[in-house]
Description:
Layout: E1 4-10, H1 23-32, E2 37-43, H2 57-64, H3 66-78, E3 81-90, E4 93-98, H4 102-106, H5 116-125, E5 129-133, E6 154-159, H6 165-177, E7 182-185, E8 197-200, H7 207-215, E9 219-223
Parallel strand pairs: 1-2, 2-3, 5-6, 6-7
Antiparallel strand pairs: 1-8, 3-4, 4-5, 8-9
Helix pairs in contact: 1-3
One zinc ion is lined by residues 11, 16, 18, 43, 48, 189.
Amino acid sequence: MALYRWETHAHTAEGSACGRSSAAEMVRGAAAAGYDGIFITDHFYHGNTRPDRRLPWDRWVQEFRAGYEHARETGNNLGITVLFGWEYSWKGNDFLTYGLSPEWLAAHPETVTFTAPEYLRLVRDAGAFIVHAHPFRQADYIEAIRLVPESVDAVEVYNGGNRTPAENERAKWYAESYALPQTSGSDTHFRADFTGGIITERLITSAADYADAVLHGGITALLPEYGP
Ligand SMILES: [Zn+2]
Ligand SMILES: [Zn+2]
């Protein structure tokens, strides 16, 4: 039986101010680490984004999507699936947003003027799938832990950027407590930092395939898989 490995949370130097490797390097790193596909989820407008916020909206989106576009070119050459998403920040609480295109984003400048609850309603009504990234991370830039279980579709119970095991353990406790589906992501900012993601038996060729796997038991294992 074939098993496939997918990265759900990755940044690029093109899209994220904290990205340390170019999109092309990130895809080559994912391929070297055995992944079959990768979601590019750069920091969105209210987070640590790369494009200048003073740009007109269409120009801003054009620069923001560059990491994904470059990743896709490399992915096409290497046979690695590259899919688009972004990481929306609400004062340091991060919501991975999957399933909407760069074109949708360009047509929706209100994504940056809406409050976070309004944003979550807007994108989910438009068909987005929301994963609460590292919900229990504690860091200087995070004002408070904010839980909105009715406004998310799944919880990232492993995040490669968390500094303590307790931050991941609490996320798992949160998901279990609310019966929210669980997923995993490296949150990698560097070509060699791939630790998380998911294993499936079926190919993922779209965000809808990913949502389907998370929501309907299509995940064979969450990474990292700890041995006995
Ligand atoms: Zn970052
Ligand atoms: Zn991230």
